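Quick illustration, no need to memorize.
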Amino acid sequence: MLVNLYKSKTPVAIFSFPVLIGLLCLPILFMEDASAPTFFSWQHDLIEFIASSNVIHYSTAVLIVYLSALELNRVVNTYGFYSKNSYLPGVIYVLALMGFGQFRFSMLLIAYGLVVFGIGFIFRINRQDSALSSVFMASFFLGTSTVFEPMLFPAVVLPWVALAVFRAFNWREWVALIVGVGVPWLYHYGMYYTLTGNLEILTETFALAYGRIQISPEKISLMTFMFLMIVFSIWKFLIIQKSQLLAFKKRSRLLFHLVWLALISFILGWYFYDSMIITVIIPFSIIVSVQMLNSNKTMYSNVALTIWIGLILWNVLN
């Protein structure tokens, strides 16, 4: 079962992990192209180019998801969320993407990966060591994610929260944070102006959008199951947190701060795009995986993942 296979970082887990992602993403090869909302016209052109070939679309999506999931594994393994190295957080991340139907190539898929890398640098921040480099890199990755999806800008607040939690005030670190967020946008507009001679602000198709919410038995079943699993995992995570070290508790606080910041992005995306921006899957992937890794009843976790995959396949096939 998946929990047993990916609970530890074994050779089988390492080599089968990209294969699992490739298998889970196979529906991309058989799905009709669905236009995703974009903020800039160059993003629309890039998506059209990638989607022009199913093979390119599939390969690009699998690569982005694999690198993002691999980094999420590294974050959990490096920063003390579990006593052993595990590949389960990446598995949960991939299933969450599929559960929300966002495993195809899009600007959001790239942005999620950049947020994961940014969190890795945020978790490096501590009270003892210099945080200048970590703050800059974290804000740089988060700033770059907003270039691909501007509605993710609330996540940029997270490095400020991390400094407030871990560090005494240091003006150099705060300046590094502002510079880190600004540099990607400077490059974006600099390169765009150099190549086109224009400063594009918005894509022509950007507008308020209000579409009908499609409701079906399979979608309701999947969303209900995911909601219950998340609520249960948060409850168990809070219990686990009580017996952990202070660093674990502080990083957990950052995860929960990311949740409410992600909810702001979700609301903005729903209002402007009529689309789900689900950055919240990143902290939830960590929370769900930590709960499963610390559970004494692995069988129940395996059953939960099996049901989850079954519900995802039910949605994909319909």
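The radius of gyration is 20 Å.
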